[in-house]
Design goal:
The complex is a heterodimer of chains A (101) and B (283). With 101 residues, chain A is an alpha+beta fold. Chain A has helices at 2-12, 19-35, 44-56, and strands at residues 66-73, 76-83. Chain B has 283 residues and is an alpha/beta fold. Classes of the chains: A alpha+beta (101), B alpha/beta (283).
Chain lengths: 101, 283
């Protein structure tokens, strides 16, 4: 009877994951990266700046239209680059000239 | 193995340098250094405990000898005093000596050559040399572990402490003298302190198995969160001398394991509270 009551209670109010389990998971992930010596790479700001330069040759963009982020899930790292060009004006290129390489 | 000047009865023993370290501050390094040294002395081993926390001297207070400090570690390194002037003999146990550090100098005063010379001299007189490390991973902490033969990683079941312990384990494996000389690695053990079995049972605290799995070093012992630890430091008594307290007994168990004995882990299950205790709160 009591067990059924608990189950019903859990259905209405799903139990929060235990904080110790969250701690363990977070530690495993952060230490896996730190042991491999793969701290957050320090080239991200430079990469972002160069992307702005390159994309900026084709469309007019502002700095805040490019977002670079690094995400870690388990053993894999995901480098995510988001470039927002919705509404960006194409660069007017002078007649006859090629886009600079 | 006979060495000139070796103390009577310890011809077969090679003195062991043991670093008590953690990375993070406030996890119980000095409490552990004091308790461990006291426990080894109780087991009949001639033991000295050295304070490496230059500028933030506290081992003297925890050991209850703060009014007897005249010369310190830095004085001896600099040749301003000799070893026997600086060593303080414990009044409770004849095997136990305290080697205080300077309160006025900074950690850069720990010159590696000087530390090595002092440790070599101590090895002639003692079985165990316990080095109480400062927090951090800078010069003072690295000097405290550099000459170690064994290390005890003091860790709380808490994320920042576990992460910092992992860093220190890495430093032991790469920057100790044994690592630099390609000698057998520093014998590294985990000591989990401030463990609260009741909170562990509720899923609010990392379990001893969790921490061991993450750090993957052998477990030397689990010290339960205990009122006796504060009481011991209040009175300047190493908690291992309080054989009635759970923490004191847990430290004595850890010392026994360190000496190679098998002992069952105690104090890892929640304390059973009797009917009257539940009724009347903590008796």
């Amino acid at each position: 009877m009591r067990i059924h009551g608990m189950r019903l209670l859990n259905l209405v109010f799903p139990p929060r994951p235990k904080s110790a389990a969250i701690a363990k998971e977070r530690l495993k992930i952060v230490l896996a990266h730190e042991r491999a010596g793969s701290h957050a790479p320090d080239f991200l700001p430079r990469l972002q700046k160069e992307l702005i330069d390159v994309v900026g040759r084709y469309v007019e963009i502002r700095d805040d239209m490019i977002r670079v982020s690094l995400d870690k899930a388990g053993e894999t790292s995901l480098l995510e680059i988001n470039i927002e060009i919705e509404g960006a004006k194409p660069k007017v290129k002078p007649l006859g000239s090629a886009v600079p390489a | 193995m006979t060495r000139p000047g070796a103390a009577r009865g310890r011809e077969d023993l090679v003195a062991k340098v043991v670093a008590i370290t953690s990375g993070k501050g406030g996890v119980g390094k000095t409490t552990t250094a004091a308790a461990f040294a006291a426990g080894l002395a109780l087991r009949g081993h001639k033991t000295v405990v050295i304070d490496f926390d230059v500028g933030l001297r506290n081992l003297d207070l925890v050991m209850g000898c703060e009014r007897r400090v005249v010369f310190d570690f830095i004085n001896v390194i600099n040749g301003d005093a000799n070893l026997n002037q600086a060593l303080i003999k414990d009044k409770r146990n004849d095997n136990l000596y305290i080697f205080p550090t300077s309160q006025t100098r900074d950690k850069d005063a720990l010159k590696r050559e000087g530390v090595e010379r002092v440790l070599e001299e101590l090895k002639q007189q003692f079985d165990f040399i316990i080095c109480d490390s400062p927090a951090g991973i800078e010069h003072g902490a690295v000097t405290a572990l550099y000459f170690a033969d064994a290390a005890i990683i003091v860790t709380n079941p808490e994320v920042s402490s576990v992460r910092d312990s992992d860093r220190i384990i890495g430093i032991l494996a790469s920057r100790s003298r044994r690592a630099e000389r390609n000698e057998p690695p520093v014998e590294t053990n985990l000591l989990l302190t401030r463990y609260d079995p009741a909170r562990v049972a509720k899923g609010e605290m990392l379990t001893v198995e969790d921490v061991q799995e993450i750090l993957s070093v052998p477990l030397l012992g689990v010290i339960p969160e205990s009122e006796s630890v504060l009481r011991a430091s209040n009175t300047g008594t190493p908690v291992a001398f309080d054989e009635d307290s759970p923490a004191g007994r847990a430290y004595l168990d850890a010392v026994a394991r360190f000496l190679g004995e098998q002992r069952e882990m105690r104090f890892v299950q929640p304390e059973r509270r009797g009917f009257f205790r539940v009724l009347f709160g903590r008796a």
